[in-house]
Amino acid sequence: MIERPLPATRWIALAIVPFLVVAVVVLFAAPERTGELFAWPIAPPLSAFVLASAYLGGIAYFLAVWRTPSWHRVRHGLPAVAVFATALLVTTLLHLDRFSANLPFAVWLVLYATTPVAMVWLLVVQRGHGPGARRGAVPEGDVAIPAAVRVALAAIGLAALAAGAAALVVPAWLAELWAWQLTPLTARATGAVLTLTGVVNLAMLGDRRWSAFRILYGAQLLSLAAIVVSLVVRRDDLLWDRPLTVPFLALVAAALLAYGAVTVWCELRLRRARATA
């Protein structure tokens, strides 16, 4: 596997960023006008905020793909983006009648019809341009994530992936239990967001290098922080009589603390490793 991202990888990543920026601005600044300015009308605004939070992490990730000199530092994000985009494409095709007949929807459809193919293609062409550092090896100046931490985070990822898959298959089930009002469309979109964490965390079972997840965890922390702010700002959208409201809030808080703690711990060890390398 080549160590440096190919020009195609970098340029595709950079091309995606402006669309994510526009989506974040619209979803955060004008959630009540999503039917006009976005691909479909989203209610309540908290659903728009959560989707925007995922896109915010995506901006950080794709900018990192553009800048990084090391392919392994961003490689595990592409499968997650492919699954996320495929889930939203399936969601779109199942709910075409709910989307707006406007330019944002046309852009949305083109993006989600092409992104899964583009991500898989990039993974293939990167693998086909020669070997890089052996996956899972921890070179000098890097640190290993302990097996117990990786297994615990992978278990969280598996749970998130399972919940996302359930939301895609039986959205009415999630809508009845969720912390705020969902339609079948927004339930499936929320499920797509959950798959991002799931795919990234499961990759930790096969790669113990902190450098391979450092960028991804930074993006996830940004998304989680945005979700926390969204929950505070849109707290009136929460339905406290729903079974999953308190568990969801607790899970978000726990994830923010856990990812933050792992990041700080690994960064401190990385600093010491580089100092002695």
UniProtKB/TrEMBL annotation:
Tell me the protein's name: Uncharacterized protein
The residues that cross the membrane are 12-30, 42-66, 78-96, 102-125, 151-173, 185-203, 215-233, 245-266
The organism's superkingdom is given as Bacteria
The UniProt keyword set, sorted, is:
Membrane, Transmembrane, Transmembrane helix
